Amino acid sequence: MNNLKGVIVKGIGGFYYVNTDQGIIECRAKGVFRKMGITPLVGDVVEVELNEDKQTGVVAAIKDRRNTLVRPAVANISQMMAVVALESPKPNLYVLDKLIASAEFAKLKISLCFNKSDLTADNDLPEMYKKAGFEVVVTSALDDKNIDELKRLLKDEVTVFAGNSGVGKSSLLNRIVDKELFETGGVSKRTERGRHTTRHSELVELPSGGYIIDTPGFSSFELAEVTTDILPGLFREFDSYLGDCRFLDCRHISEPDCKIREALKDGQISESRHESYKLLFEEIKMATAYK
Ligand SMILES: Nc1nc2c(ncn2[C@@H]2O[C@H](COP(=O)(O)OP(=O)(O)OP(=O)(O)O)[C@@H](O)[C@H]2O)c(=O)[nH]1
Ligand SMILES: [Mg+2]
Ligand SMILES: [Zn+2]
Predict the structure, then answer these.
(1) Nearest ligand, measured from the Cα of 184
(2) 59: helix, coil or strand?
(3) What is the DSSP letter of 91?
(4) What CATH number was assigned to the domain covering residues 3-64?
(5) In whole angstroms, what is the distance from residue 277 CA to residue 212 CA?
(6) Which helix (H) or strand (E) holds 83?
(7) Could you count the other beta carbons within 10 Å of the beta carbon of residue 204?
(8) How do the domains of the chain map onto residue ranges?
(9) Residue 234 Cα, ligand 1 centroid: separation in angstroms?
(10) Could you tell me which of 76, 129, 233, 263 has the fewest CB atoms within 10 Å of its CB?
């Protein structure tokens, strides 16, 4: 009767802050969760039993999770926004493609944000990724460019902002919420690690619907379960060619009559994405050799 539904937006020292239609309720978790070895996570959709005071409560039930990310420890993410700076720091496309592959593996919606457009006149990266089949937005947090387009991609999604330090994730998030909510400065924060940033991730609700989450230093999901067999399926522009190569077990690296390599020659698949694929293939092969 007093039960409320909500989403855990923050967890600190055994307290969980649940966003409900009656505002944020500070909660403890029911003892039964500890006995079962279950820890409530930020992003969990939960049921709250209000205490007598009506101000605090207990987390009484947790809805089945759609997914769980390890770093940061959050549940029910629906989208990854990979942020890349067009300039400064220079894009590392291998790191980006690895991040994308891990998000594909986690079955997340993927959007790409190329930021700091004020620093460079023209750059073919956004086009290249659009052609590969991704939702792409080119922004400048400095000039407030295309922030509305970025907001449109976030509507009704639970989006984690991922990308290397200094690309402008927190700066973009501040433009989105239109206040200085997230700490920026990238580089100095890295050297003062742990001083300003909480170890716990926090979800921020958007007025237009949806949640965003800022995660400093966060650059990859788990790829531990990915094998070389599933890897080609994590490059979406390979999809229409898979299964048509001469060899059933084609690795799409040096085999004859490989449709992926033909598409590469025709310019349908970019050299840089295929290069990342080959590097990832080697990386996974080496990692599995020691298992
Ligand atoms: N020129 C320019 N500078 C930007 C832009 N966006 C962010 N910056 C600057 O880039 C630096 C890093 O920005 P942050 O927003 O802190 O980067 P971050 O991705 O959150 O970095 P971490 O929190 O370390 O992961 C800051 O000095 C920002 O002012 C942009 O669009 N253009
Ligand atoms: Mg940041
Ligand atoms: Zn092939």
Answers:
(1) 1
(2) strand
(3) P
(4) 2.40.50.140
(5) 29
(6) strand 79-85
(7) 17
(8) 3-64, 69-214, 231-289
(9) 29
(10) 233
- 54-72 residue pLDDT tens: 899 999 999 999 988 877 7
Residue 169 identity: K
Nearest-Å Rg of the Cα atoms of the chain is 21
56 touches 25 (CB < 8 A): yes
How would DSSP label each residue in 158-216?
EEEEE--TTSSHHHHHHHHHTS--S---THHHHHTTTTSS-SS--EEE-TTS-EEEE-T
Residues paired with 20 in a beta bridge: 6, 23
Distance CA 233, CA 67 (A): 19
Do residues 166 and 85 make contact, with C-beta atoms less than 8 angstroms apart? yes
The pTM (predicted TM-score) of the whole model is: 0.90
| 3-class secondary-structure state, position 45 | strand
Q: Is 84 helix (H, G, I), strand (E, B) or coil?
A: strand
Angle value at C-alpha 165, between 162 and 169, nearest 5 degrees:
50
Superfamily covering domain 231-289: Probable gtpase engc; domain 3 (1.10.40.50)
Whole-angstrom Cα distance, residue 74 to residue 69?
5
Burial of 131 (0-12, 13-18, 19+ CB in 10 A): middle
Phi, psi of 9 (to 5 degrees): -105, -20
Instruction: Pick the residue whose CA is nearest to atom 9 on ligand 1.
Output: 168
Among 171, 195, 214, 215, the mutation site with the greatest number of ligand 1 atoms within 8 A of its Cβ is 171
Give the model confidence (pLDDT) of 231-275 as tens digits: 999 999 999 999 999 999 999 999 999 999 999 999 999 999 999
Fold of the domain spanning 69-214: Rossmann fold (3.40.50)
